[in-house]
Amino acid sequence: MSGPAADPAAVRRTVDAVWRIESARIVATLAKWAGGDVGLAEDLAQEALVEALTQWPGSGVPQNAGAWLTTVAKRRAIDRWRRDDRLAEKYRVLAQELDEPDDVTWEPIDDDVLRLVFTACHPVLGREAQVALTLRVVGGLSSEEIARLFLLPVPTVQQRIVRAKKTLAAAKAPFETPEPSEWAERLGAVLGVVYLVFTEGYSATTGDRWVRTELANEALRLGRVLVGLLPREPELHGLVALMELQASRFRARTAPDGSPVLLEDQDRSRWDHGQVRRGVEALAQADALAAAAGRGRGPYALQAAIAECHALAPSVEETDWHRIVVLYEALGRLAPNPVVELNRAVAVSMAAGPEPALRLVDELAARGELTGSHLVPSVRGELLARLGRTDEARSELLAAASLARNDRQRQVLVDKAATLG
Amino acid sequence: MKYMLIMRATADAVEASKELDFEEIINAMGAYNEAMMKAGVLVGGEGLTDPEEGFVVEFGGEKPVVTDGPYGEVHELFNGFWLLEVSSKEEAVEWASRAPLGPGSKLEVRRVTAEEDFADYADNEYIQKEKGWREEQAAR
């Protein structure tokens, strides 16, 4: 803790750090206290933050900064309600309670943070709004930080958050964890938000590399927070495992000039093996919990298991491709998806050769799935090349290049076609 | 960014801590660990056993010299560490100052090296390896 009369810039950084640590619990506590209004709670918490920035440079950072911010926010609320003649009875009671001296209770409840998570990911909100609100109220990020991470203008993020709060208020979304009947679906939405943040960082084709790593780390942090709140949900551990295992390859998947390095060409000694270990442990935890509940692996745990096969293999040749094929089959049954099918075909080509793989890809193409995407022709081209059908391979790769969505991808495909001679 | 919180204490403080109620220590440490876990920042950590079980390997002579613990002239003992993934140095400071440690203990906090720390080392063998591979690709 810094002493009195500290440098304002240093206080600002300390306030930011305290905010990162405490904001979810402050907003959750305020939302519960103010009858479940997350939008109001967030506004009040922001007002308290502004007050901290003016007071703390002179007074020093208080010992229990979270309690200080919560109390100031509550006083701000009371001031607002006092000015409002139509003050509801419940607020009158809250106002009286706070007038009692020394009423500085600071016992944040995990359940309130969990309510906050589910409210931020409420189905009345669109996915973009869920993402922005979750990073803001659960992750403790400012609109400026969210904008920087997602390469968006700040006003766009601010608008999304304002609209999200309005939507929640208009829908009277209750500040509650979901009923058992809708638990799985609502939890699925929360996991979807976290994974979207991760993939935005992991697979974005634009933007600064460090920023993208930061965004993926933000998702991991959210995932770990959720594991702390819901330690017995297998799919949550599966999601954390998937993110750890994928993120372990960050260092190796981009060349110094920023171009992507494919999995088979990555220097595996540069993978983050501590992170691999954490991923393997999280997947084991997911499996143990699922087994105890008499359930199988969910989609995140299955994807984590595939990532684990790669993470533990010393090379492409020594990868257990048969196991990967089986895992893709299981994933395809659970969550049918043409991209999963295509990945399965690639795994089949590694396990059993290009011929059976080509049959799978042709079936996929015959069903008209993934039409317009460069993925099918690029995989077909690759398989045809391995079968020595060079002319067909070249025309498929060039077709894929014409469909590619960015220059880098296009160049890789054109180069590949050119190497076929 | 990752920070390592390295727990260091004087030998006297370690001796004195043996007089404390061990369960109290476990509870305080447990609460601290849980708070960091729930905040999503704790990514690793271990505690170390008494120095009697350890040894020191010293370099300098022709051959490294192995000395069993405890190590007479050492003033501070390294007793364990936490590994945190946080968003700023200040956040690391916040967490470090919340550690339930008593007099005679200190935390040395160090940032763990990350990829960007090596950005200037373009002649590093790994980066060279990748470059070589890329040139090979281009030549084909």
Helix-strand layout with pairing:
The complex is a heterodimer of chains A (421) and B (140).
Chain A: H1 8-33, H2 38-59, H3 65-83, H4 89-99, H5 110-120, H6 127-138, H7 143-150, H8 154-170, H9 180-203, H10 209-229, H11 234-247, H12 273-292, H13 299-312, H14 321-334, H15 338-352, H16 354-366, H17 375-386, H18 390-403, H19 407-419
Helix pairs in contact in A: 1-2, 1-3, 1-5, 2-3, 3-4, 5-6, 6-8, 6-9, 7-8, 9-10, 9-11, 10-11, 11-12, 11-13, 12-13, 13-14, 14-15, 15-16, 15-17, 16-17, 17-18, 18-19
Chain B: E1 2-10, H1 11-17, H2 22-38, E2 42-47, E3 55-58, E4 65-68, E5 76-85, H3 89-97, E6 105-111, H4 125-139
Antiparallel strand pairs in B: 1-5, 1-6, 2-5, 3-4
Task: Please characterize this protein's 3D structure.
Chain A has 421 residues and is mainly α. Chain A has helices at 8-33, 38-59, 65-83, 89-99, 110-120, 127-138, 143-150, 154-170, 180-203, 209-229, 234-247, 273-292, 299-312, 321-334, 338-352, 354-366, 375-386, 390-403, 407-419. Chain A has four domains: 8-105; 109-246, no CATH class; 309-353, no CATH class; 372-421, no CATH class. In chain A, 71% of the residues lie in helices and 0% in strands. The longest helix of chain A has 26 residues, at 8-33. With 140 residues, chain B is an alpha+beta fold. Chain B has one domain: 2-Layer Sandwich (Alpha-Beta Plaits), CATH 3.30.70. Chain B has four helices and six strands. In chain B, a hairpin with a 6-residue loop joins strand 3 (55-58) and strand 4 (65-68). Chain B is flat, with a radius of gyration of 21 Å. Chain B starts with a strand and ends with a helix. The mean pLDDT of chain B is 83. Chains A and B meet through helix 1 and helix 10 of A and helix 2, strand 2, helix 3 and helix 4 of B.
